[in-house]
Amino acid sequence: MHDADEALALNALGWILTDEPRAERLLALTGLSPETLRESLGQRATLAAILSFLTAHEADLVACAVGLDIRPEDIAAAAHRLSGDERIDA
Q1: What are the domain boundaries of the chain?
Q2: Core vs surface per residue 9-38: b (16+ CB within 10 A) or e
């Protein structure tokens, strides 16, 4: 599922970048510059930050899910896995 989560994060980034104000908000909230974002796309932490950016703003999360034809819960679950927050509740 690891590769699928990374692919989802990259697809989500593509969706984010289609809207300039949203893309600028991503950079502002993550502290990344366009250059550091490009350079760090292979890093799990950057991919997790992209999905966490979406999960922090429900309107973007839902719109991205619609745009990518997936469930918002799938984006949230991938964000948790990429950030290492996957836990099993007993």
Answers
A1: 2-82
A2: bebbbebbeeeeebeeebeeebebeeeebe
Tokens of 86: 């996957």
Q: What are phi and psi of 88, to 5 degrees?
A: -105, 120
Contact by Cβ (8 Å): 23, 16: yes
3-state secondary structure of 43: coil
**Whole-structure pTM value:** 0.89
pLDDT tens profile 1-59: 479 999 999 999 999 999 999 999 999 999 999 999 999 999 999 999 999 999 999 99
Nearest to residue 7, comparing CAs of 42, 31, 57? Answer: 42
